[in-house]
Amino acid sequence: MSQSPSSTLSRRAWLASTAAASLGCCGLTSPLRAESAASPRKQLLLLFLSGGASQYETWDPKPGTTTGGPYRGIATSIPDVFISELLPHTARIMDRLTVVRSVNSGIADHFQGHYALQSGRVAPGYPVLGSAVAKLLERPGDVLPGYVSIRRDGPKAYTDVGDAGFLGAKYEGVRIVNSQPPANLTAPAGVSPALAEAIERVREAADGKFRQNRDGEPIDRYDTTFDQAKGLMRQREIFDLSKESPADHERYGRHEFGQHCLLARRLLQAGISCVRVTHFDWDAHQDNFYWHQIRCAEFDRTFVTLLDDLSQRGMLEHTLVVAVGEMGRTPKINNFAGRDHWGRAWSMAMAGCGVKPGLVYGATNDDGTEVRDNPVRLGDLFHTYLRAVGIDSSAMYEINGQTNPIADPAARPIEALLA
Amino acid sequence: MAGVLTVAATAGGPLHQQIDALVEQRLAERNIVPSETSSDAEFVRRIHLDLTGVIPTAGQVRSFLDDSSPDRRQRLIDELIASPDYAIHMARVVDVMLIERRIPTIRSYDVPSPAWRSYLTQAFAENRPWDRIVRDILTSDGTDEANAAGVKFALVRDVEPHLLTRDVGRLFLGIDLQCARCHDDPRFDAYRQADYFGIYAFLQRMTAFRDNKQNVSLVGEKADGGTMFVSVFTAESGETSPRLPGGEMIIDPPLEEGNEYVVKPEAGERGVPVYSRRLKLAELLPRAETQGFSRNIVNRIWATMLGRGIVEPLDLHHPGNPPSHPELLAALDEYFVEEGFDTRALMREIALSRTYQRSSMLPADSGQIPADVFAAARLRGLKPEQFAWSLLQATGRIEQCMEALETAQKSDEATTTDEPPAWKTRLAQLEPLDRQAQQLAEVFAGLPGQPAGAFQPTVDQALHLLNSPTMVSLIQNAPSTLLARLLAITDVKPLTEELYLSVLSRRPDDSEVAEVGRVLESAGSAEQERETLTTLVWGLLLSSEFRLNH
User: Fold this and answer.
1) Mind telling me how many Å the CA of B449 is from chain A's nearest CA?
2) Do B156 and B214 fall within a single domain?
3) Measured between CB atoms, which of B369, B455, B472 is closest to A188?
4) Do the interacting molecules here have an ipTM over 0.90?
5) Band (A68; pLDDT cuts 50, 70, 90)
6) Is residue B315 one of the residues assigned to a domain?
7) Which structural domain, as residue segments, surrounds residue B28?
8) How far is A187 from chain B (nearest CA, A)?
9) Greatest Cα pair distance in chain A
10) Same domain as B274, residue B148
11) Residue B142 pLDDT greater than 50, yes or no
12) Do B362 and A233 touch (CB under 8 A)?
């Protein structure tokens, strides 16, 4: 960090000058591909199927085999491609999806799987996808936070693994738990707008004086957080779902996942770079087929509604939607009619910005026990997500004197999936 | 290593003179004009923050500013560094340095914070040498009463050998060997996979043990387990015995089969081996001979005082990342070892230096001054604990708490017989505020397991300062005394002075007095006056001048 004769530089001028150079203190060896500032911001929506959805009951059915379970496959809008009958709405829009049937993460543990999915690595200490995207897609003058994570309260456990790591607290996901907005978005009782305004004037005057002949950088950085706070207070309605029409509430679904997806769309609309929605209870060690019927029914309708809505609003072009769990489920059906943890051959789906629609990539063998074609690791997917939203995943973070690869150098983007 | 680089210009003279000679020599070479010496007001705030972790009271500032004796700065340094507040502050600093705000996966499998902090506070109150502190922490398995709290270092890392390996390297030796876990670090030749596994071999036999009868978490150890490693890059493999970087391999002593254990690890039994690799590490690591051991802490203490290490980042000492002032680092290192790892003496010498005492006001037309030349005091965010306690200080809560205690003590004076040590008394006195301070600090704290790093304020912190009910009550409600004190003053000049001394630790200038006079004049009613004063207090608490150490 350099010291500058800040008295000669107004804060706005400073913002403008650093906007050209880098994003704040922590430089980056320009991972963003050339893109005009006027084009809409690329965004990412992660629908995290917590616990691990079964590939058999979703994207890779194997009816009539010993591993396949009771459900049929149904035809989709891609000729000769079948998915589970538990996803009938999704089947009709299959030509708009990009499905990977050959994920081999080798991890059959919630904690490890979730971390590897989120950070694209096994080595600990790296930022999660949402924090990375928030940092890498940040634009100068941004007021809203870059990453918001939406979930219900509990279970806490492994779904909280992972954070902004060395990117720092600024890029930590803002958590919306049970649809409650972040804390302190309104003035406390007894503080009128006039009083708040007067406090602000005292603060600004004090900073103006203190800035003289001092290094302006940390002062500006502190100052910016107050601008951001005021921006969030002004825009606090972005967290208010009651502003959405009853029709939208209805078609997204009045259940938790539907409501959370509606909130996610609202936040993406407001310009948040990355939103994560956690859909719980896929960890079906018992009664797998009953649970997947329930989970899939929620997911299916809401997922299609969400994609339709994003598409109609022109948002899907610049928003990548990813639906993925931290692992798949065993081919073997256990004594409780459940499926257990499985990392060797499972599936995920994407749609929207930067990926090829109507593509089914990779394949498993006949009973789904092994990947047959094009194995994909979680690290490869991480590269692919970043590339899809316009980030050069081979670039490096340069933070506090440390150089770190944005994505695992041992993994690589899956070019065949990228539009 | 120490001493080799000492240059003629610095021979003899107390360390603080050597510091200035070495820093200024470099400034002259690079043709950089440093800033002036700080004003007394800048100094009094900074030295309180750096030696006691909290801004001074209005009274403390006033009496220092009114002191015209030439040795007033040295006297203040000596007074503060001898106070129990110094020990309490250093305990907070070292807590954050070593624990990095980690909690174990199972939250309750930990050493309770009060036990840990009073352990560290006592260590710094007694000025326990740094090698002893580190040896105690590495030795502790949680069973030895005097030293039980030290096991926290292992417990917050779930007694996980890889995590411990990385953090022993980072925090005690200043080397982050993370990448070397899987391969020789391609970035730095100095970080070899064999070094990582040399440390790992000391720690890999450690096991977590939960004593459900006593409800405590302890560390056990196995007597077996060799260390193999394979590079993911080259597939080359190796085998190692325990070894510190640059040191010799430590071969396990031969033991008769069946005689490896004092207590065999079984269900419900904590394993205690006859020969402990962990205790060998505790014996060998905290010594001047260990590469990086004293250099690491000297650099960290320098960074605590100056806001930047001589090697930066603090945990990346290697030939490709040389110190900004090699001779200075060597001189500090040499002094520290000669003085018997005396952290207090080192802090005092740094505080006495002209380099530490420079102003944060840059010389006119100075242009870009590089950060690594120490030409001016660096603006740095108050650490979360400093900020929290300073909020409580500025609003008069600490003084109020002390007054309440004094009153209570007077009423039962005759009952005290044994005088507890001063640090214990002071910790007990601050206890009523501790919870509130910790809650505040949490809002401003960084992420667990991450070094504190550069000043990175966040929007949720700003929202907290603007809108949280905590702030309203801190400013407006008893037992805060600042607003009440200000309301009792009628003349503008003394009122403004009390406000600025309390919050910004300096006297206001004429324009500031005039401005306060102007806004107070427009306040007609008592209610409006109260509101205006609230505005002034709150606005100044939100200022960069309050938020930064400058």
Assistant:
1) 8
2) yes
3) B472
4) yes
5) very high
6) yes
7) 8-83+304-362
8) 5
9) 78
10) yes
11) yes
12) no
